[in-house]
Every structure is written in C-alpha cells, then in structure tokens.
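Table S2 (continued). Query chain:
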Amino acid sequence: MENHTKVTEFILVGFKSHPGSQLLLSVLFSTMYIVTVVGNTCMILIIRMDSKLHTPMYFFLENLSILDICYSSVITPKAALTLSLGRRTISYNGCASQMFFFSLFGTTEAFFLAVMAYDRFTAICNPLLYKIVMNKRLCVFMVVGSYLSGCINCTIQTGFTFSLSFCGPKEINHFFCDVPAVMHASCSDTLVNETVMLALCGSIIVSTALVVFISYGYIIITIVQMPSAESRRKAFSTCSSHMLAVSLFFGTVFFMYAQPGATSSPDKSNTISILYTIVIPMLNPFIYTLRNKEVKGSLKKQLKRKRFF
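Corresponding output:
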C-alpha cells in the first residue's frame, strides 16, 4: 500500500518515439472517432425508425452500435488530446477507470459477436423455430448477460492489475491504460497477473470464438445444401458482414490477450491496439450497412422521406 500511495499518476508514452507524426495521429484519431460516433448513431437511428428492422438481428446490431460508441469513447478522445497537446499524464484513478470500462466494453463485444452468430445460426438452420426461440425475453437476457460477463472480467482484471506495486518509472508504453501495458510498468512480479489474464481472456476469447465457428460451420453446411442459388446467395449475404466483423475483432484481440508473453512487445501492441480500439468500431457500421440490403433500403427510404432526393 505504501508503494501505491506514492504513485498518483502515470505517463502515457505510446508513439512518443515519433514526435513528427503525433499531430497527424491526433487528427487521424479525432477524425476516426467522429466517423465512429456518426456512423454508429446513424445505424441506431435507421434501426429505430424502420419497423421492418425491429427483429432480433437488428436488436443486437443496434446494441453493438451503442457498445462501439462507448468502447471508442473510453480511449480515442483522451488519446487524441494526449497526442495533440502533449499532456501525457493520466491520474492513478483515471487509469484504473479507463482500464475498467475498456475491459468491460471489449469483453462485452466478444460476447455480442457470439450472440449474433447464434442468432444467424437459428435464423438459417432453424427458420421455422426462429421466432419462438429468439423471443424478446431471450434477446434481452443475452444482452444483459453479455454485459454482466464483461463486468466480471473487467473487475477481476482491474483489481488484479492495480494490486501491483508501481514504485519505479511511472511510464506506460501505450496510448491508453491497457492491462498488459500497465502490468509491464509495475515493479512487482507479474507472473500471477499474466497467468490470470491469459486464463480469463483466453477462455473468453476461445469460448466466444468457438460459438461463432460452430454456428458458422452449421450455417455453411445448411447454405450449401439449399436447393436454389438465389436462396444460397440471400442466406450468405446476411452472414458475410458478421463474418468479416468477427474475423477482424477476434484476430486482433487474440494476438493481444490470448497468447503467452502478451506484455513482451509493447511497441507492436500499440499498433495492433489501434485496430480493435479505434478502427473496428469505426468500420462496423459500414460493414453491416454496405453488405446489407435491408439497411441500405431503409436508409434510402429515410433519406427520401427527408427530401434529400
């Protein structure tokens, strides 16, 4: 506890080795954050304004858009200000709060993607039972359960990380308070913490990824067995956007948290982190809009109603 009280703030030194590009990165982060908020807000409004989109699939997609706004808001504004103003300090409590909410929203997103895969599995493989199985109560339960699972993980991760001693340099080699980066800045033995992180994050990533892969395994088999090319094309088009989003998210997150030695390459982690904290939340609304005829049709209808055409 004596060591903890000595540390009242940390210094975020991510990308400090490239001073010439810091302003450019700040502008880039700010632009991507604005696109993230606007894109996901538009997705939410489109779904809420069109009664035809009031289905389980779009209920989950709406919640994913809300989650992406929150997810990106925890990291991007602070990172953009840090890079532009050069104020790289973050308070001890602020760092703990950032880690807590980042872990909460990141873990919840993994469960959301698994839930959305199960929804597509039910819709394509058991279409006659879809409305019965995916009722409103189950959908709400899945969303709440995803958040509760995220809350359990972030409480454990944040608690374990900030139980460490920080008695040496207060520098965190990252642009936000990520779990591996903060652990790397500690002067304590982090073996137990790394084991806990690997066990927790590994089990979450592997279990949710298994749900996704098993669901899409059955989906692909079902699509291949469909009699007409049109039905196969339609079924695949409803899944392709989600498959792309899943591949981007799980690929980067697995590299960061589900492999041994995740804290050993902070410079590489900085670059990879940009993908799942800033880029993916920005891309998700475009992925789901551009690959989805129902959303594009609803968007055109809303624009016509507002006399843009």
